[in-house]
């Protein structure tokens, strides 16, 4: 019975319906008129979409257990390992850095706009470093290992990634003067949208969302981010607003002629939990062992994935440059020869 009670508790927590169940049991729905009540009503949206996604796959006989198995195993493992780490990281950063903030904001619409732009910048920093610093890539790579896109991918993270991300994002926002209530509201919106943009083709075949594709980052843009195609590597680091990707030149639309290949570039077993979860740490350890001298060992930790002390670099930047040069050369070869003007006799 204890096991069943725990299982029911975890299920209710996952679905985000605890507060709604409490309202139903008490018959008091006045909480829906409050800010917390509205958040409680929105929380089950992503789990509901996930169940709908799985249900559609089952009905149309497109369900493959391997598409969902590994993210689910990672989610269960993280529930045991990192239940309170991220909350503690946020609380620590608020308590430590709030006294050093540049100024104080209030919970108003104009400060909300300011706060979201700052939050998106902090998210860009964490996410960019997660791809450009080898140690941080070890934390982030688990999220990129799934070879299909569906809503369970939003639950596939290494257990230390959330604390690492929240330390950076919370610190930047608190120092920029965003007060905690406003920050938590932004976090909720960002978390909900950040989960939604992982929606798979089974529910949203075309993830461009019409005219919104030119205004915000859509599921289409995030599918590009999860691709291992050379053209798409290290792009679309923001979550909702594409402003910072455009500022720093990392923005990339999905191209109809370029079919997305999901996953990471190194050879791995997507059905092996230890390879998915710890594989990049193992690869880093092997590089550290063979690297000559302390300097090279440190460089392996802080340089981008693919950097090598031998000079034979295979970073995303180099791979992408080689691909674009090859595409340019191929396009040049396909150009028709200019018409020759007849010479006068």
From TrEMBL:
Main location (coarse class): membrane
Molecular function per GO: glyceryl-ether monooxygenase activity; iron ion binding
Keywords: Lipid metabolism, Membrane, Oxidoreductase, Transmembrane, Transmembrane helix
Fatty acid hydroxylase domain residues: 113-250
InterPro entries: Fatty_acid_hydroxylase, Sterol_desaturase/TMEM195
Keyword Zinc: no
Transmembrane regions listed in the UniProt entry: 29-52, 72-97, 109-129
GO biological process, alphabetically ordered: lipid biosynthetic process; membrane lipid metabolic process
Mode of membrane association: Multi-pass membrane protein
Subcellular localization: Endomembrane system
GO cellular component: endomembrane system; membrane
Name of this protein: Sterol desaturase family protein
